[in-house]
């Protein structure tokens, strides 16, 4: 689709997108970073990458070995 549009049309689309983005509310990183840190620390106990998955609830554990008869 982008190849079908002229350079002027592409620039017009870009300007429209930038006009939309400038209206987004901005939050200082000092505030946002603290909120993210607090959330991560609060949810650390539920994170399976940190505490692991119990063997009985692990959907990827091997069900059984290979038997050759």
From TrEMBL:
<dbReference type="GO" id="GO:0007186">
    <property type="term" value="P:G protein-coupled receptor signaling pathway"/>
</dbReference>
<feature type="domain" description="G protein gamma">
    <location>
        <begin position="1"/>
        <end position="69"/>
    </location>
</feature>
<dbReference type="GO" id="GO:0031681">
    <property type="term" value="F:G-protein beta-subunit binding"/>
</dbReference>
<keyword id="KW-0636">Prenylation</keyword>
<keyword id="KW-0449">Lipoprotein</keyword>
<keyword id="KW-0472">Membrane</keyword>
<dbReference type="InterPro" id="IPR036284">
    <property type="entry name" value="GGL_sf"/>
</dbReference>
<dbReference type="GO" id="GO:0003924">
    <property type="term" value="F:GTPase activity"/>
</dbReference>
<feature type="compositionally biased region" description="Basic and acidic residues">
    <location>
        <begin position="53"/>
        <end position="69"/>
    </location>
</feature>
<dbReference type="GO" id="GO:0005834">
    <property type="term" value="C:heterotrimeric G-protein complex"/>
</dbReference>
<comment type="subunit">
    <text>G proteins are composed of 3 units, alpha, beta and gamma.</text>
</comment>
<comment type="similarity">
    <text>Belongs to the G protein gamma family.</text>
</comment>
<protein>
    <recommendedName>
        <fullName>Guanine nucleotide-binding protein subunit gamma</fullName>
    </recommendedName>
</protein>
<comment type="function">
    <text>Guanine nucleotide-binding proteins (G proteins) are involved as a modulator or transducer in various transmembrane signaling systems. The beta and gamma chains are required for the GTPase activity, for replacement of GDP by GTP, and for G protein-effector interaction.</text>
</comment>
<keyword id="KW-1003">Cell membrane</keyword>
<keyword id="KW-0488">Methylation</keyword>
<comment type="subunit">
    <text>G proteins are composed of 3 units; alpha, beta and gamma.</text>
</comment>
<dbReference type="InterPro" id="IPR001770">
    <property type="entry name" value="G-protein_gamma"/>
</dbReference>
<feature type="region of interest" description="Disordered">
    <location>
        <begin position="47"/>
        <end position="69"/>
    </location>
</feature>
<dbReference type="Pfam" id="PF00631">
    <property type="entry name" value="G-gamma"/>
</dbReference>
<dbReference type="InterPro" id="IPR015898">
    <property type="entry name" value="G-protein_gamma-like_dom"/>
</dbReference>
<keyword id="KW-0807">Transducer</keyword>
């Amino acid at each position: 689709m982008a190849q079908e549009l002229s350079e002027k049309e592409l620039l017009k689309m870009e300007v429209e997108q930038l006009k939309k983005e400038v209206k987004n509310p901005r939050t200082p990183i000092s505030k946002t970073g603290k909120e993210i840190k607090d959330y991560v620390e609060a949810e650390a106990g539920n994170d399976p990458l940190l505490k692991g998955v119990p063997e009985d609830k692990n959907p990827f554990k091997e069900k059984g070995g290979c038997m050759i008869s």
